[in-house]
Write a structure and sequence with these properties.
The protein is an all-alpha fold and 183 residues long. The chain contains seven helices and no strands. 43% of the residues lie in helices and 0% in strands. The N and C termini lie far apart (89 Å).
């Protein structure tokens, strides 16, 4: 068999080179690996900008339930203010750009953190400040462990044993003035 006829025969083949399975050319796209979605990464500055944007749009929120359009506008605002670099300094993968959906997800997470801190501040016998969090040390570790065990509805509180939530004060402007179980 000549080289050209072997090549033509190979191009016309509908069989895989590694098996006897017939491959439908219309189904080849299903065999290709699916693209993995990039996780949206947020810097504290971007989180602060999202909160500031939402504060300016609070009137349209209806009890902190912002509409998808507001999150889309927030994403556009953040992308303009914090453009993604063309390449990273060490050649790492560039994180995904902010979208309306990622802004909505981040807002939900920020609200959970805020409510966890509010619960911590309202808990009897607990202390919280924005610099040192609950200020847990060896002497108070058992009390902290007991608090986390009882407060299973707020596992987000755990990182705040020794650090504060830097967005707490800004978020107070967006959150309702009373919390569940608050006085």
């Amino acid at each position: 068999m000549s080289r050209t006829s072997a090549s033509a025969s190979s191009n016309a083949s509908q069989r895989s080179l590694h098996s006897n399975t017939i491959i439908d050319p219309a189904e080849v796209h299903k065999l290709q690996p699916k693209a993995t979605s990039k996780r949206t990464q947020w810097t504290p500055e971007e989180e602060a900008e999202l909160i500031a944007f939402l504060i300016t749009h609070k009137a349209s929120s209806g009890d902190n339930n912002f509409k998808a359009q507001t999150f889309k506008q927030a994403a556009e605002h953040i992308v303009i203010k914090f453009p993604l670099p063309a390449t990273t300094s060490k050649g790492y993968t560039i994180p995904a750009a902010k979208t309306g959906s990622s802004c909505s997800t981040k807002w939900s997470k920020l609200k959970k953190l805020y409510n966890a801190i509010l619960d911590l501040k309202n808990a009897s016998g607990m202390h919280y400040d924005n610099d040192r969090g609950a200020n847990i040390c060896d002497a108070t570790q058992s009390m902290w462990d007991a608090y986390l065990k009882v407060r299973t509805s707020h596992p987000e509180a755990q990182p705040f044993s020794s650090k504060g939530f830097q967005h707490f004060q800004a978020m107070e402007a967006l959150m309702p003035s009373t919390s569940k179980g608050g006085h």
